[in-house]
Amino acid sequence: MGGWVPGPMSDWLRGGDRRPGGISTTGPKPWLRTDPPGTCPVPEDQRAWTERWLRWCAEEFGPAAPRREIALPGFAPAGFTGTQEQAELLVRRVGAVMGANVSGIHVLLVESPEKVQHRRHQVGEYRKVLGRAVIELDRRVAARPDSFTGLVAHELAHARLIGERRATGLGISHAEEERLTDLVTVHLGMGVLSANAADDYVKAAGYSVTPVGELTDRMLTGRGDEPLYRMGYLSPADFGYALACWSDMRGETGPPWARHLKASVRDALTRGLAYRAARRR
Known about the structure:
Strand order of the largest sheet: 1-3-2-6-5
Order of helices and strands: HHHEEEHHEEEEEHH
């Protein structure tokens, strides 16, 4: 891997940021604001996992340089409704951010039947058919363009991991590979949208997205008459800490894109940055 590596990134790749810290899984709940300053927003095992695999991402895909583009809300084309043409354009745009070659990928739009709404069901998948890569996307998710963008990012992360054979030989389970896929979206510039989709409250869509390689739908308990929609194997706190690590790797102490995060993710990001700063003292 060549190219310029920022100072914080160099320390990260050398493993110099592995000092003891974090919180006990039996201690205070990480999402409560009663945690003392400098407390990691995720349990110790998740902290270690995140840092380990972000180091792997940096070695595999290149450093998280400040010049890397970050996709923000509104990334989907204006007036996005999920037509074939719009979906293909969005795949190309997300691919450009993530460094994915999408020229040989076929985009297949499907529409889940009404009866599966509010239940777990597949809404996205990356697969090979007769040697050709296919990304299958549920058109109903287009009711939330930012979440649809996150869906595309998750499947293109699969293309970079599986299609480019980067996951071969890692010796990890399917579930851990899916979590790594979410983390790859963070490292490759799509983390704001992926993280926001991990804590999404919307009435109109009628369901949500939970990536499982194939992407499945899961509707959780809502607030009043608002159903809770969740996309991703990583929780909002997991995404927040991953973004804090990624920001640290980029040498950003107060990332300007943080204002685009939903409150739950932004809180974890803020606490994650404070925790990492405390570890450096």
